Amino acid sequence: MNKIRILGTAAILLAAMFFQTYAQDDAVLLKRAEQLHREMFSIDTHNDAIVKYTHPWRPDAGDRTQVTFPKMKEGGLDAAIFAVFLAQGSRNKNAYDSVMAYTVKEIDFFKSFVAERSSEAGIAYRSSDFWPLKRKGKSIVMFALENAYGIGTEILNVERLYNLGVRVITLTHNFNNDVGDSSRDTVAEWNGLSPFGYKVVEEMNRLGMIVDVSHSSTETLYDCLEHSKAPIIASHSSVRAIKDIPRNLTDDEIRAIAAKGGLIQVATGRWCLSDLPREQVNISIFCDHVDHVRNLVGADYVGIGTDFDGGGGMVGFEDVSKMKYVTVELLRRGWPEEDIRKFWGENFLRVLREVEKISRQINL
Ligand SMILES: [Zn+2]
What we know:
alpha/beta
């Protein structure tokens, strides 16, 4: 009887010690993560938050927006690429004119929104804008367009978008458009980039805009890699070897993007990470995708594109205020701080600088 009681007490003590150590480790890791986030530059390369601000009548607007400047501060995130998302409609001139007008309106609205909060936020138009804004303690916005459907068939629209401040264009969404084929459409229309799509890529290279192949078909992705003079990115895509859906990247695609100096920015949508029930998909599973890319091609080619306000997020990683917990998990997995800095922002800055350099060379 005594023996059993002693054993029971010992087991309880051991369990208590284990949980205490684990909690202490967690606190230490969180402290290290917060310190790192103060020192390094960090960016999330894709969210769809703009629409939550421009259409506040939407039921999911307001406090439920996953990306706000205070939440970015809380999470230790310096910068985010805010995309104007274009749902695809008819492919004719009237529709193209109206989506372009919509894009201009959305960006103008969000620029005013940032201007009204100039003490807490600023807009980056080039790679050299990020660090000065971070040093001033501001949350940083860079603009993107999700779905080149908005370009229609008018090449001048690419420069119009550049002049608005757009620096990343996601070429497709869930349907083929006049630029190229999507990973989600039922039949191939162009078998990759369209003839117009090749011109769009050239124009983006000339202007210094990043070509984004998230949502693109495999053929579109390879056409971009072959044709683009600058590195390309997948701004929010996860790993098909872990979750087998066409929207995710195969190992060959990951290798090919990395071989051209580009980036795989892992998305956080539960549906693109795992088949497990909602409550079991967590930051650890997200980091399995990140680790997969790092193990395959190295830490120079991986980062994060949350897709917040566009389907991103999971239990424990509900919004941008939780970003630092990704760093906690990477530290727990033994990532050196050098690789964590690359993951969060150095890789993206390298790619943007390269895109800008190639643009300058083309314009010489
Ligand atoms: Zn998307």
